[in-house]
Amino acid sequence: MSDTTTRDTVILGSGCSGLTAAIYTARANLKPLVLEGHEPGGQLSITTLVENFPGWPEGVQGPQLIENMKQQATRFGAELRMAHLTGVDLTKAPYVLHVGKDVIHTRTLIIASGASARWLGLPSEQALIGHGVSSCATCDGFFASGKEIAVIGGGDSAMEEAIFLTRFATKVTLINRTERFRASKIMLERAMAHPQIEFLTNTTVEEVLGVEEKDVKGLRLKNQATGAESILPVSFMFLGIGHSPNATAFRGILDLDDDGYIKTTNNVFTTHNGQILPGVFACGDIQDRRYRQAITAAGSGCMAALEVEKYLEQFGH
Ligand code: NDP
Hints:
FAD/NAD(P)-binding domain, 2 domains, five-stranded parallel β-sheet, elongated, binds NADPH dihydro-nicotinamide-adenine-dinucleotide phosphate
């Protein structure tokens, strides 16, 4: 159903940054509408223990942290809707958002649509998603119980997934395409010291075997130093190779960088052809490729909310 009134603010995304923006704008009595997006709860909802969010000395489960934030936002009047943006017109205020057949008018917009897991892009990988290929260890780890599996990547995500998956899998082979790891020293050392984790470096996945059987049977690998190919007999492949920003709806509408992240100035202000777009702010991983932490996403969500409040003062709020 389309809204007939013009809203003060709409927030795209329900991860850490979007929900923090929702808490702040709701407490400012702006009755924010949160469109939860394709991946409600964002990346925290598919992670396990978060040990570095201040205030949780023993750590907190990512989904629990998100659930708490949702409750906090709705307690102050935020409206959460399971929907995602299908079109947008930011040429003049109030701005127009399309959500399927619905049309929403809003004076301000907070874009907190985050980033999504990356895939290798192999046809065999795509054919086997949900049949032994996964980008979410937390979601699908259980299905790897008692199996030998592979984790792809060399960053903190890959290390975290590999360590987590040892709870289920009998053996985890971590495959990194170079000799160099992006992971932090502590995570890399933890994974390397784990007796169930084996490392293969300088190695790429050329094909996921098992397309006909609709079940992963192994990986065809290539050693990048020697060119030698080999077969690794695993029954599951988990991707941990980073994320891509969810900003395609804003291509040509807002300034994006070469990798598709929304460019911001003064922390959270968006631009079009280098000029600030009034009332449109971006926060969290959609505009941050450097820090990408829950706490920094929350921080920028707060900044966007405060800028919304300031911007709306001109309308007598
Ligand atoms: P990163 O960008 O840090 O690492 C991505 C990894 O995947 C790199 O090793 C990269 O290799 C590899 N990769 C990328 N594309 C491909 C490809 N097509 N084929 C094979 N390998 C590929 O992403 P992460 O998700 O690991 O981390 C993102 C951020 O989140 C970091 O800041 C990290 O610290 C943080 N994080 C923190 C955690 C924690 O503290 N508990 C847990 C998870 C993430 P190459 O180096 O060759 O490009």
